[in-house]
Amino acid sequence: MSYAVEWMPGVVAVWTVLLLLIVPEFALIAVLVLALAALVALVALAAAALVSPYLLARSIRHRLAQPATRPRRRWIDSPSASPSHSDG
To answer: Would you say the C-alpha torsion 19, 23, 27, 29 has a positive or negative sign?
Structure first.
């Protein structure tokens, strides 16, 4: 990997900061976008915290509703169901 590729994120960050300092309208838009992203993340975190007990209780209830001993499925119902190798 060349040094140009390794330094690219730093150069982009520096030029972005300079652009935001030179053009305040871009800085305002950037701040609004970051604030909106933080708000969405906060709402998603609150929703996950509120819904997780419900999902946990639902999965436990579903697990308890299943019968403890399930009948095992037989993959081969009869000996004639298996392919015979004496045909060829």
So the answer is: negative
